[in-house]
Structures are given as C-alpha cells and as structure tokens.
Hints:
CATH architecture of the largest domain: 3-Layer(aba) Sandwich
Number of domains: 2
Shape: globular
Amino acid sequence: MSEVRRHRSDTRMVPVPSYSIVPERDVNAIPVLETRHLGIEFGGLKAVDDFNLTIGPTEIAGLIGPNGAGKTTVFNLLTKVYEPTSGAVLFRGKDLHGMSIVQASRLGIARTFQNIRLFDRMTVEENVRIGLHNQIRYDMFSGILRLPRYWGQEKKQHEKAMELLSIFGMQDLADETAGSLPYGVQRRLEIVRALATDPKLLLLDEPAAGMNPRETEELMENIAGIRDRFQIAILLIEHDMSLVMGVCEGICVLNFGRVIAKGTADEIQANPDVIEAYLGKKRTEQNGREEEKA
Length: 294
C-alpha cells in the first residue's frame, strides 16, 4: 500500500442470507442493491455471468478486477444502460426490470464515468444545477413569466448547488467554465453533479484516475465524508488499490465477467485467486518459489 492513509471504518462485516456480507450496522436493513445471477451476452459472448452482490444502505463497497473483467458493464447494467439477458437487479427491494435510465435515476441511482462527461462550456454551478433538475418545484407558466415561485426555487437551487460544491471546497469556482478546470477538479465536479440528484446509491467509475497521491488522499476523505453526511451507499470501480483498500468495507473481485472473490480488504489482499488474476499464474508461482527460498 502507498502513502495514502486508510479511511475505511473498522466496522465488522457479517454474513447475510444471500451469502454476501454487509456492514454490521446494515444487517437488519433492506439492502440498497442486490443482484441475483445477473448476466449479459453480446453476440453469444458472456460479458457478465452469474454476478451476485449485496450492498448495505450505508456501505462503501468496491468492485475491482483486471482490465476487461466486466466492471463497467456491471455499472451499465445497474444504471439501465443495458438490460440484462439473465438475472435481476433489486434496488431497495424493487426490481429494476424494464426500467429506463431516467427511471433508475429518479429512484436514487447516480453514477460518474471513466471518461469525464461534463458540459464543458457551462459554468461549474450550471453543471451542478443540471443534477438538481428532478427537484424543480415550479411549472412552465411560472418559469416563462418569472413569477415569485420561480425566483424562490432559483434561489433554493443556487444555495443547494453551493452547499454541494463546498463538500470539495469548490464554491469559489462556481462561475468558472467547467472545461477550463484541471483534470482532478473536473473529476470532483462530476461527483458533485451526481450527488445533486439526491441518490441513495452512488456509483463511482475510477474516481481517482489521473489524480496524484495528495488528491487521492483527499478523495478518500471525501468519499468517507459523503457516506457519513448523506447516509448513502457508494460502489466504486478503481485501479488504485491504496484507495480501494483504504476506504472500502466490502470488496467484490471480477475476472472474465465472473465473481472470483468477495470479502473485506484484508481477505481480498490475501486471496490467492485474486493475486493470480492480477499477476498471472506463472508470476504467482515464481514469487512463491522465491519466498520459499528466502
């Protein structure tokens, strides 16, 4: 592990009836997410196969695996970009079958992307306010005529946007053009915009990509702070193992579209199947022989 400090809680993870684990504090609550034998095929190729995962309503969970393991495909299934060819996705006990991306978002699923998807020519605040669109409380008539109800809602949205930006200390950048921001700041803005939709489950796709160790450390603190402040669940895909092992309570490892391990950070780091998936069998055996000689 790198210099990045650990920020995950020391919460004990306990089994639940689906043979998954959730934080002990969530064991009696309805899982925010439960996938059952989830799978999808593209032209006969199984990109994801028999994927089972349970996430507690306040859990910070990690989904890791080598490149091409199917992690982003899982995110696309959870957010209804793809419709599964087998299995089911339950969100807070509700089956998402047949729902659209918009319907899933309104239920409380929000995500960021591997490739940043901001409105570059709009300001930072305008990008955040796009995420607040579901919370607009005035009709078209009030908006066209600029009635008091319109101005009252506009004020509330401005205040909410600034409050969300303050999580990352970005309130002073509200009037800056999003496309002019440094890469790491754009990453944080995308997370803020996702939070603006008032999610119950926040999916972060490689949030630390392109960040230096200091920025990664700050991101870790912010992920833990977001969970504590909003009492939501967070599922992240990440290749920076210091971040994953430092903040995630439960971790699921995917390889060739199938789950090969689930457990706590310590269990995953010691799992031989996980080590082999990342290093390859020959290298793992070689390392083992070197350790024996030592």
